[in-house]
Amino acid sequence: MKDLAAELARRKAADLYRRCRVAQDPQGPERVVDGEPCLTFCSNDYLGLAGHPRVVRALQAGAERWGVGSGAAHLVSGHTAAHQALEEALAEFLGRPRALLFSTGYMANLGVIGALAGRGETLFQDRLDHASLLDGARLSGARLVRYRHRDLDDLARRWAAARRPALVATDAVFSMDGDLAPLPDLAALAGARAVPLMVDDAHGLGVLGRGGRGTLDHFGLGPDQVPILMGTLGKAFGVFGAFVAGSEPLIETLVQQARSYVYTTALPPALAVAIQASLELVRSEDWRRERLQALVARFRRGAADLGIALGDSPTPIQPLLLGSARRALAVSEALRRQGIWVPAIRPPTVPEGTARLRITFSAAHGEDQVDRLLEALAVALREAGTS
């Protein structure tokens, strides 16, 4: 066994040590964290639904009706009418024949890739795909080929040398950069080669597209072009869980072969009831997306006026690249001293030399809070200097 204490000391010395901060109250822009009040810009609760009274009441009613646990895996005794109703509602919402619930997006990605790709086959992924997609590929035994970020010329070159291509998988919205995958061109490339395209829309669902139908709807792409869609329910939906949507044969294959579906306890049915309530809010309250877009635009204008360079992101994820882990920590701590919470994101979450603040917005934020963030950022960057 390796010397764990020495490894932890090495991480601390390299400014890569991480720890959980303790929040004393629910999700929202204003929170008490480690005993101190702060304004937060680090949650994925993009539409402000995590504490919505209607969603909370639905969860309470669901617990009264179904209890607090599902008791077993879906294929044993854990699949209830609440799960079934949610799967049908998600499939209808996204215009797909079926949807299948998973406990987390991580488990969904592992399950899909493990069921559809294996030894002797090749799986293509964007170099900045989420860790769950990369881990799914590694566990599947397939040969993983990673192409340069959003570079389809590089993908085409690598494809030409590949044996038995089985799957192309990509984030729709990249979680640390907030930029979009070139999905129309990627779908055309995969379609021309008769290889299925899998899209992880964890950060686009609820935020983009008509009624929050996500990045595929934003680009006008349908099931024929993107046959495998994964979405999560703990970000813009504000609850918990994930799903895969697709054709009848795809979903039945996952039911039979996705190990992270077959061998794990089903999502509590009360959560399925809460997600149903959230889904209705996502699809009916366009003002949440409009407000979110307006806040992001206000922040980007203000940052430009202050000479603060941001990544090219049209989404609620606004990366401020700072280079070294030490400088990212320094800016984050300078914000904390001003009562604002934006954690530093460091390797291995992001590539070496690209440590950053991952600033995220919610429809629950106010314009005055965005302005306060901009003022604090200007101070924090001056305090941190160029170290």
Q: Number of DSSP strands?
A: 13
**Low-pLDDT segments:** none
The CATH architecture of the largest domain is 3-Layer(aba) Sandwich
Q: What's the N-to-C terminus distance?
A: 36 Å
For the biggest sheet, the summary is: 7 strands, mixed
The count of domains is 2
The level 1 CATH classification of the largest domain is: Alpha Beta
Number of helices: 15
CATH homology superfamily name of the largest domain: Type I PLP-dependent aspartate aminotransferase-like (Major domain)
The helix/strand order is: HEEHHHEHEHEHEHEHEEHHHHEHEEEH
Spatial strand arrangement across the major sheet: 3-9-8-7-6-4-5
Question: What is the CATH fold-level name of the largest domain?
Answer: Aspartate Aminotransferase, domain 2
User: Structural class, from helix and strand content?
Assistant: alpha/beta
- Assembly classification: single chain
Describe the structure.
This protein is α/β, with parallel strands linked by helices and 387 residues long. It folds into two domains: 17-47 and 286-384, Aspartate Aminotransferase, domain 1 (Alpha-Beta Complex), CATH 3.90.1150.10; 53-284, 3-Layer(aba) Sandwich (Aspartate Aminotransferase, domain 2), CATH 3.40.640. It has helices at 4-13, 53-66, 74-78, 81-94, 105-116, 131-140, 152-160, 183-192, 215-219, 248-257, 259-262, 269-284, 286-305, 325-337, 367-384, and strands spanning 30-33, 36-40, 98-102, 122-126, 143-147, 165-171, 197-200, 228-232, 242-246, 317-323, 340-341, 344-345, 355-360. It has a seven-stranded mixed β-sheet with strand order 3-9-8-7-6-4-5, with helices on both faces. Strands 1-2-11 form a three-stranded mixed β-sheet. A three-stranded antiparallel β-sheet has the order 10-13-12. The longest helix is centred in the last third of the chain and has 20 residues, at 286-305. It is globular and about 55 Å long.
